[in-house]
Amino acid sequence: MTTAAKPSNQTLEPAARGQSQAQVVWAQFKKHQLAIFGALILGVLYLGAIFAPFIAPYGMAEYSTTDITKYQPPTRVYFSDPETGRLELPFVYASKRTINSESFQTTYLEDRATKYPLRLFVRRPLEPYKFLGLIPGDLHLFGVDQPGKIFLLGTDGYGRDLFTRIWYGAQISLTIGIISTLVINILGVVLGGIAGFYRG
């Protein structure tokens, strides 16, 4: 004589679902703090490259033939009056270019007669740009009033702002990285498909 099986109090666990390769990669990526930090830096660089015309205070090839600024050192941004020590909004001084008559070396000295406040969202109608090559604009993240100038990283041999040129240069460098990756993937898929069709 058979007896009926007693119902078990234990609930059956659902079968573990298989993960796709993308899910496995994402799970491993989230565990790697250094990878996350690197991805954040790369994201900031890509955003900076995309918005380079807005972030940069000047045009990529902008320089003056009258107010020569070649090899000018980085402009110092002041947050307090150097004489009184009183805190103020950020400002810069203009620079005077002088040439040593004996060594013919160029030096730049601060002209502390006038302060040029650092302003946000400055419009420069005389130096327009096209965002992504399509949208016209003239708004820049920061800048100073003329004839003051701000060169956060100094200038090159033509007097062009290095901070501006770095962000514009990042557009080319980072775009090459994306295009090369896409080309490699396309070639890999095509060549892999051909090899699979002809059985290697």
Protein architecture, described:
It contains 4 helices and 7 strands. The longest helix has 36 residues, at 162-197. By secondary structure, it is of the alpha+beta class. A hairpin with a 6-residue loop joins strand 2 (87-99) and strand 3 (106-117).
Which terms would index this structure?
200 residues, alpha+beta, 3-stranded antiparallel β-sheet, two-stranded antiparallel sheet, 34% helix
Helical segment tally?
4
DSSP, total strands: 7
Q: What coarse outline follows from CA principal-axis ratios? A: elongated
Order of helices and strands: HHHEEEEEEEH
Strand order of the largest sheet: 1-2-3
Q: Structural class of the secondary structure composition? A: alpha+beta
Q: What topology does this entry show?
A:
Layout (H helix, E strand, L loop, with lengths): L20 H11 L1 H18 L1 H4 L22 E3 L6 E13 L6 E12 L1 E5 L5 E3 L3 E3 L1 E5 L18 H36 L3
Antiparallel strand pairs: 1-2, 2-3, 4-7, 5-6
